Amino acid sequence: xxxxxxxxxxxxxxxxxxxxxxxxxxxxxxxxxxxxxxxxxxxxxxxxxxxxxxxxxxxxxxxxxxxxxxxxxxxxxxxxxxxxxxxxxxxxxxxxxxxxxxxxxxxxxxxxxxxxxxxxxxxxxxxxxxxxxxxxxxxxxxxxxxxxxxxxxxxxxxxxxxxxxxxxxxxxxxxxxxxxxxxxxxxxxxxxxxxxxxxxxxxxxxxxxxxxxx
Length: 214
Prior knowledge:
This protein has 214 residues and is of the alpha+beta class. The chain folds into two domains: 8-52, no CATH class; 56-212, tt1808, chain A (Alpha-Beta Complex). It has four helices and twelve strands, in the order E-H-E-E-E-H-E-E-E-H-E-E-E-E-E-H. The chain has a six-stranded mixed β-sheet. Helix 3 (131-148) links the parallel strand 7 (122-126) and strand 8.
């Protein structure tokens, strides 16, 4: 696929879709463009990256996590620690030059709703199938999110059956791996307990449905 550069004079007219992958864009051009729905758009090192919509396995698990977070916020005595959680949240990385889209963003400990463009406290990614996706989630995004000022990063991997938690600090990363059958808790959300076996079961049911030929 050829790489084309979009003219700044035509930024307002830019309409981008899956065939636009590989186009060179400035951050301003990316922010002002119109997009064909049903795809995920990111700006990485000045290049437009277009990805398919996450699978049902990922979306189902993500929705379940959202439900548990909202329930925690609503009824747990310490639930006020959670300010907001949003699906498919776009953030700026590499000093504002790149645009990443998080599977789930969580703001915690603010005591208010986040301002527009305010970096989330926690980034959550559900690993997609393939070695390239694993490398991106475990290595590339980890570095980007640390640099962006995110406090914690959760990598939920239905293939490895693990949740890897990265806590970022000025000195070193606190890395913890939780296996299926364990529960996960974060000091940023006191009292919130995530049952990994139950979470993975929502992705598994789609695999079972496919095997049955439903």
